[in-house]
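Input.
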Amino acid sequence: MMRLRELNQEGVDRFEAWLADGALGETPLYLTTDSTTSTPVTELIDLSPQIFADRYHFGKYLVDILAPLDSLQLSTDRRLWTTLALIWLDQLCPRLTNGTRKLDQSYRYVLSADYRHYYRHLVRSPWQLVKDHGENAKFLLLPTADSPHPLRRHGEILEQLGGRQSVLRSQSVVAEASRLYSNPKTGRPRKGVAGNGRGSVRRLALVLRQLDLTFDVEAMDDGKLLSILPTEFDRWKSSTQVTEG
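Output.
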């Protein structure tokens, strides 16, 4: 158990520099406790850097421990999200057998100043999605099958929808998309959902843009959206209980 502090600007800069140099050696966790590189957060928050089975449960944990903080301010808190990425970096970007790490883009670990990349942050996105959508966020966060490093991989479905913030912000749309694309037993996305083919998640985002011209999707009753989707989505609708009307 540790008392949460957040990196100050010097701490963020030093973490970024370490990443830019290849993230060699031990994770610089001392940056999160040293008074020259970190400061106390506004609320007393104790956290346990535990190992998580998947990104959904990681998001649930983050929602719980960060509940005392104002969610609007937290959403854009670059220093705090970067701190949390540093704390869990060994799960977000584990060291390989030769001691190196396979780093992704910097915005996966250091919250970008560009809000359009917020959804790509490997800690903020699970928190935001679970906070907004609860269990319906599973198909956005879980892979189709288990992986050895579940926090490392940014889901392909989330990547496809991430640029369409109106979709990710909509509780009703995400609920219906979850119903359409999720395995009802596991909550995982079904195989074949990602990609560019007919009935894919990417196609759903495009179809929703067209439907918005004539329908108030947000005001639709449960199941209504699925019932008016084009026939290209029938392969997924056949395993859901969609009613007309």
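The chain has two domains: 1-120, 155-245.
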